[in-house]
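Weekly puzzle thread! Below is a chain. First person to post its structure in token form gets bragging rights.
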Amino acid sequence: MVMNESVKEVSTRHSSLPKTKDKPIYYVLDTNVLIHDPSSILNFEEHHLVLPITVLEELDSLKSGKHAVGADARQAIREIDKILGKASPEEVEQGVPIRRGDKARPLGSLAIMMPKADDHHKKVALLPNHINDNKILNDIYHLKQLRPDNRVVLVTKDINVRLKARGCGIESEDYQNDQLVSDIDLLNKGFIEFEGSFWDHIESVQTEHSASGILHKIPRTAVLHKDWLQDIHANQFVIDNTDFVGKVHELTEEHITLLHMNRQHMMEQQAWGLKPRDIYQAMALYLLLSPDIHIVNLTGTAGSGKTILALAAAIEMTVAKKMYRRIIATRSTQGLDEDIGFLPGTEAEKMEPWLGAITDNLEALHYGDENTSSSIEYVLESTPLQFKSLNYIRGRSFQHSLILIDESQNLTPHQIKTIVTRSGSGSKVICLGNLSQIDTPYLSATSSGLTYLTERFKDFQYGGNIQLQGVPRSVLAEYAESVL
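Winning reply:
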């Protein structure tokens, strides 16, 4: 695994300090880090990890139940037990080596910090011990006194705890191992847009006709401005102001091969009667309808058309083309895991209030029909549209299904992996999200599972993504998005 980026940055920043030079760092993990990534204890290379006993108590209180947090807590506990094994209490206190499959990698250690009875008179409590966060901060302060020659760093996803730590003179940072981009503006958009003509940037090109269509083979050496070459990936689009549209067909070290796309034909695409309103929606619809693309993720502001495009394409591919047997819709919302059990009805009936965006867009697709209700009933009867809770997805495998994940910006990288790996033979996954509307605590645009998925899959030859532009919903929605 790749070393935590923050560890690299911190190590470089403090390498000039004589007392910590070449000495391992003591990283104290907060509970939310282990919930966010249950395998995080394996990502700190040669450095020492310390878990306050309060963290284990919090994991113990979270492990019960079927909700996602409980499953993550149980997995974190198993990872800790796997490392500590049959170590003696003395070894656990000093630190047990973290052994990995790659024996060449440096070993760190994992220790459990549990204050002894004779330490109470020595220990200075900076904060009242009535809440767990304060107990952890007090333990870290005590550890700093015990290890004056080592750096002691708190790793937590909780911004407020980091602020409190700074106020107590304790170094703290966010867990960044799964943050693949430092700035959300650097995230792959799924297309590269050129001012003027794209061909003004190319010195030579070889064009040929094939079974796939018209292919433009461009030597990398023939590119005049090479700054965009590092941003080009599989199934990405190239567009310009002269109506040229090309899709990356093949990438090699020597050449970039673009499939020439007819812009007019793309704008005339239809999915269950829905046509794209701009070129960005057209590119998204092309990826959604393509049988060769197995995973598509669409990002964009509220009202940019993510859900209605995905739903129209899903119905087209299941009802009309019979490419998939069923549509499985799911999402994660704050409070969903806790509240679903108190809602009446079946799993589908419980999930329906949370998936209102799906049913709203289904109604919008048939708004112009003579009998909207009959059209919706026909769709629901023609193909199973199943609403699934994340609680019941773990361990399942969906064959020949179209898996629609709404509000995926609220998922952690670990959760997004859990869902995507449920896709079986002949299935397709569509992830939708708005990175400016994250409701889950401890997540940001750079640490969201949607960002993680976009960055990890940018070179996957059977995947694609599009960042939709503008707000085609209404003039009011567009104005509200820009000024509110």
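Puzzle host: Confirmed. Bonus trivia for everyone else. The chain has 17 helices and 18 strands.
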